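Q: I'm writing a short explainer about WW domain-containing protein for a general audience and would like to include a description of its predicted shape. Could you first generate the structure from this sequence?
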Amino acid sequence: MGDDIDWLDLPGRWTYGVCGDGRIFFINDDTESTSWVHPGTGYAIQSGHFSCAGFGSSIPHSCFPWKTR
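A: Of course. Here's the predicted structure. Afterward I'll give you a sentence or two in plain language.
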């Protein structure tokens, strides 16, 4: 993702969250789904973490302390 793109410019009813380890994820408030990929650009936000093979696409429960398991 280029430096000139504002990652806070989210479409529709999307919001964002930050996991305890600093990774940024996106929340679709209409469908109550989450994604590591920015809904407008199609790219994950570079937050100092790296991706590797086998990394799951789901957001860990530790990112949602307000939800019950």
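A: For your explainer, you could say: The mean pLDDT is 74.
Q: Perfect, that's easy to follow.
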